[in-house]
Fold:
Amino acid sequence: MVCARRGSTTRLTAALLVAALLSACANAQASGGPPARHSSSVPATPTQPGPAHATEALLAPTPLFDPSIDLRAGPVAVPLELRLPSLRITAPVLGVGLTPKNAMDTPMGPPSDPVWHEVFWYRGSGTPGDATTATIAGHVDDVIGRPAIFARLKDLRPGDTVVVHDTRTNLDVDFLVTRSVTYTLKQASDPAVLAQIYGTGPIRGQGPEPSADGVAHLTLITCIGNWVRTAGTFDHRLAVYAVALPSATPHVSSRF
Structure:
C-alpha cells in the first residue's frame, strides 16, 4: 500500500463535507496508465481525533480490526464477505480509512490486481449489523474499462437481500434493499445526502452514532454515468440503501 501506517493509538474521525467522488472507479480514459494503489473516494476534512476504541461486530464479540490502527492508515483485512445473492456476487471486504487528501480510500492497482473484485468498508462508518449506518464502496470498472465488482450494482431491486458474512464464525446478517438512488456530483455533496450515505456521526466529525430508528442500515455505493475526462471521474454516484429488520439476528450461513 502507498499510504504508510501511523503509530497513533487513536482513530481519527472526519467530517465528510464534499461529494462521494469515487474517482477510483477507474476508466481506461482516466490517466493512460495504471493508477496508484490509493485513490480518492470521498473527500473529507479531518477534525480532532476521537477516542481510541475497537469496532465491535454484531457478528462476533471480537473487533474487526486492530483498534490501534489509525483511520489514516492504509487498508486492512477484515474478516467479512459481502454477498449479493440476486447477482450471484461474493466479495472479500477490506477496511479502509482516509487518504492523505482526506478522502475515503478506494484502493486501485494494475488490471490483474484482485482489488477490482473486492469491496471497501469505510472504517469511520458503523459496523455492518450494528444499529447505525455502515458504508461499503466498490469499483464499477477497472483501469482498462472492464467490469469490476459493482458493475451490476444498478441491478439490485427493493426486496433483494444483501448479506454480510463473518468468515470467523460462519454467521450472516441479512439486509433488505429498500431503494436505489442516483445522485449528480452536486447532489452527492449535499450534507443531507452524505448523512444518508454515511450516517450523521461521520459527517459531523464524530464516530458512528446509533440510528434514530434503532435499525441497522447499510449503504452500497459506486460510480455510474458518463466518464468526465476533465474531472477524472464519472458524473454520477449510485447509492443502494438497505436495512436489517430490528428483530434480525446473525444466523449460520447458507451459501447461495
In short: DSSP finds three helices and 13 strands in the chain. The chain has one domain: 12-52+75-252. The chain has a mean pLDDT of 79.
